[in-house]
């Protein structure tokens, strides 16, 4: 039975779906920054511009999925809370780990990286989604902002 809609809407409705790609049979558990780095490095280390990924996790740190949140320039990418948390909300994620690359190879976080991470941690608290870490990735390895800045989630 189809639900009856208010005639004021004139049949215009918006539905949002999260679509899982791939078979999803394998359970991937992430046990710290090194396992996250291994998961995302191939996508990030060769890019000539900054890419922001959201790694979405269950309560047991099992991988739900990885979403490309933003593709920026050689110097920066956008980290708006609404964009970062949209897929995590749809996926019922309990936590996320942010990952972005520095095409320059530099692993030291910029002041903007630190400021944006603090904003996203606070936004996540409001939404009930923990920002567990934020990794900067390059061809030289990775830097965990949780370890670098001693963030508490």
* Topology pattern, helix = H, strand = E: HEEHEHEEH
* Major sheet details: 5 strands, mixed
Strand order of the largest sheet: 2-1-3-4-5
Number of helices: 4
- Rg is 17 Å
Distance between the termini: 45 Å
Shape: globular
Q: What low-confidence regions span 5 or more consecutive residues with pLDDT below 50?
A: none
Tally of extended strands? 5
Which class best fits the helix and strand makeup? Answer: alpha+beta
Instruction: Classify the beta-strand content into a percent band.
Output: 15-25%
What is the typical, i.e. mean, pLDDT?
A: 87
- Share of helix among residues? 25-40%
Question: What do these coordinates show?
Answer:
- With 153 residues, this protein is an alpha+beta fold.
- 29% of the residues lie in helices and 24% in strands.
- The protein has helices at residues 33-44, 81-90, 111-127, 145-149, and strands at residues 51-57, 63-71, 95-101, 130-138, 141-144.
- Strands 2-1-3-4-5 form a 5-stranded mixed beta sheet, with helices on both faces.
- Strand 3, helix 3 and strand 4 form a beta-alpha-beta unit.
- The chain starts with 32 loop residues before the first helix and ends with a helix.
Record keyword descriptors for this entry:
153 residues; alpha+beta; five-stranded mixed β-sheet; 29% helix; globular
In brief, what are we looking at here?
The protein is α+β, with helices and mostly antiparallel strands. It has helices spanning 33-44, 81-90, 111-127, 145-149, and strands at residues 51-57, 63-71, 95-101, 130-138, 141-144.
């Amino acid at each position: 039975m189809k639900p009856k809609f208010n005639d004021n809407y004139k049949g215009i409705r918006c539905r949002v779906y999260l679509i899982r790609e791939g078979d999803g049979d394998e359970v991937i558990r992430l046990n710290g920054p090194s396992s996250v780095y291994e998961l995302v490095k191939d996508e990030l280390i060769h890019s000539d511009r900054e890419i922001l990924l959201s790694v979405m996790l269950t309560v047991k740190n099992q991988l739900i999925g990885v979403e490309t949140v933003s593709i920026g320039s050689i110097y920066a990418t956008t980290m708006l809370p609404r964009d970062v948390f949209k897929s995590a909300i749809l996926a019922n994620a309990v936590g996320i780990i942010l990952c972005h690359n520095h095409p320059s190879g530099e692993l030291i976080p910029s002041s903007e990286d630190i400021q944006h991470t603090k904003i996203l941690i606070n936004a996540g608290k409001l939404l009930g989604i923990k920002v567990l870490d934020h990794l900067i990735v390059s061809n030289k390895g990775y830097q965990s902002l949780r370890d670098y800045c001693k963030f508490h989630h």
